[in-house]
Design a protein that fits this description.
The chain is mainly alpha-helical. It contains four helices and no strands.
């Protein structure tokens, strides 16, 4: 019988990685493809991402706590979810506020700015950094998920 802590941690990680992947691979591209302006698409995605980031923080901390009891790959199963939580924390509470301040300064349309405008360049850079933090969180959580499943299999054999 698999350890309930390992199954719980794997379930949390799988749910969050799935939700984050859905937003990154489906919701965001669809919003930019079907909404009439990039500003509306950005507003939609901007409303969804905080939920993903905060959930990543909660899931990362929960999965790390569930791994605390030891077992196979225990250190990595603690560290990786904490990395995921930290990445989500930075994206939500460091990068996102900077993006919001810049958006307020720019106004409704980033596209109205010249491609070389320093504010547009800075927005692009911040957006890229935010995507990188989310990607790092997803990668860390995904590896933690694999290690947790492997640990559960070892414990049940």
């Amino acid at each position: 019988m698999p350890n309930i802590r390992l199954v719980s941690a794997a379930s949390l990680l799988a749910l969050w990685v799935g939700a984050a992947a859905l937003v990154a691979a489906v919701v965001a591209p669809a919003a930019f493809a079907v909404l009439p302006t990039r500003a509306l698409a950005g507003a939609l995605v901007g409303r969804v991402l905080p939920t993903v980031f905060v959930a990543g923080i909660v899931v990362g901390l929960g999965a790390a706590l569930l791994a605390w009891g030891g077992g196979p790959f225990a250190r990595a199963r603690i560290a990786l979810p904490l990395v995921a939580a930290g990445a989500c924390l930075v994206a939500q509470f460091v990068i996102t506020p900077r993006i919001h301040r810049l958006r307020a300064e720019i106004g409704p349309s980033i596209e109205a700015l010249a491609a070389t405008d320093p504010r547009r360049v800075q927005f692009g850079r911040l957006h890229g950094i935010s995507v990188a933090w989310m990607g790092a969180g997803m990668l860390a959580a995904g590896v933690a998920l694999v290690l947790t499943v492997l640990a559960a299999r070892k414990v049940s054999s």
